[in-house]
UniProtKB/TrEMBL annotation:
<keyword id="KW-0547">Nucleotide-binding</keyword>
<dbReference type="GO" id="GO:0005524">
    <property type="term" value="F:ATP binding"/>
</dbReference>
<feature type="binding site">
    <location>
        <begin position="10"/>
        <end position="18"/>
    </location>
    <ligand>
        <name>ATP</name>
    </ligand>
</feature>
<dbReference type="InterPro" id="IPR003136">
    <property type="entry name" value="Cytidylate_kin"/>
</dbReference>
<dbReference type="InterPro" id="IPR027417">
    <property type="entry name" value="P-loop_NTPase"/>
</dbReference>
<comment type="similarity">
    <text>Belongs to the cytidylate kinase family. Type 1 subfamily.</text>
</comment>
<keyword id="KW-0963">Cytoplasm</keyword>
<dbReference type="GO" id="GO:0006220">
    <property type="term" value="P:pyrimidine nucleotide metabolic process"/>
</dbReference>
<dbReference type="Pfam" id="PF02224">
    <property type="entry name" value="Cytidylate_kin"/>
</dbReference>
<protein>
    <recommendedName>
        <fullName>Cytidylate kinase</fullName>
        <ecNumber>2.7.4.25</ecNumber>
    </recommendedName>
</protein>
<keyword id="KW-0067">ATP-binding</keyword>
<keyword id="KW-0808">Transferase</keyword>
<dbReference type="InterPro" id="IPR011994">
    <property type="entry name" value="Cytidylate_kinase_dom"/>
</dbReference>
<dbReference type="GO" id="GO:0036431">
    <property type="term" value="F:dCMP kinase activity"/>
</dbReference>
<dbReference type="GO" id="GO:0005737">
    <property type="term" value="C:cytoplasm"/>
</dbReference>
<feature type="domain" description="Cytidylate kinase">
    <location>
        <begin position="6"/>
        <end position="220"/>
    </location>
</feature>
<keyword id="KW-0418">Kinase</keyword>
Length: 227
């Protein structure tokens, strides 16, 4: 079977990672969660008191940041490592979510991450989830999907995710965070969140996980048949 690139972009918390993880397992593809990379950079900025408005500090930090992924058998997906340390659980916390949109809007940060993402998926056989994969990272990706969902449903899903990890956060606080992130992500200059012209829209508000996975698998199959 020919291996291609699946670009899965869209709003926060509409099921991109969960869907991508399942699709990757079914197709034997690698799954790369690019949001985790921006979250790891944010965590580094937080821990090292990097002033994100100071280009010199940002440049220095980027030279010191090494991000990698390692498959975790238990989770059935890759964990993200920041300078050799597993930060998969830390980067999902609310304080990281609060700062990640600002950090990921910095041009130097995006350039460094995009270059690494292009390197990681250059041989295909990858499903990559993010905001700018189909527009900027892999504009020639064979399969492009843009995912969205009702903001309240997205917030409820995020609340459950956080609760499963032991963090209880008020629903209104999550809705605010998602709205704020949507605005920053969609209006930034570099690599904004926008549906690629040739991406297929998938609204997951009332879709089960199985339906989402089948949607992507079928689209991938149709594309392969036409190649
Ligand atoms: O997918 P996520 O919610 O974990 O992503 C966290 C943040 O990272 C999100 O608010 C925007 C940013 N991001 C980005 O700017 N570009 C990407 N390709 C992926 C994520």
């Amino acid at each position: 079977m020919r291996k291609v690139i699946i670009a899965l972009d869209g709003h926060s918390s509409c099921g991109k990672s969960t869907t991508a993880k399942r699709v990757a397992a079914k197709l034997g593809y690698a799954f790369i969660d690019t949001g985790a990379m921006y979250r790891a950079v944010s965590l580094y900025f937080h821990e090292n008191h990097v002033t994100s408005t100071n280009p010199k500090e940002v440049e220095k930090a980027l030279n010191e940041i090494h991000i990698s992924f390692q498959f975790n058998e238990q989770r059935g997906a890759s964990d993200v490592y920041l300078n050799g340390l597993n930060v998969e659980s830390e980067i999902r916390k609310m304080y990281v979510s609060e700062m990640v949109s600002e950090v990921s809007a910095i041009t130097a940060v995006r350039k460094a991450m995009v270059a690494q993402q292009q390197q990681m998926a250059k041989h295909g056989g990858v499903i990559m989830d993010g905001r700018d994969i189909g527009t900027k990272v892999f504009p020639d990706a064979e399969v492009k999907i843009f995912m969205t969902a009702d903001p309240v449903i997205r917030a409820e899903r995020r609340q459950k995710e956080l609760l499963d990890k032991g963090e209880l956060v008020d629903l209104d606080e999550i809705i605010e965070n998602l709205k704020k992130r949507d605005i920053i992500d969609s209006t930034r200059e570099e690599g904004p969140l926008v549906q690629a012209e040739d991406a297929v829209l998938m609204d997951t508000s009332f879709m089960t996980l199985e339906e989402q996975v089948n949607f992507v698998i079928e689209l991938h199959q149709n594309v392969l048949e036409r190649l």
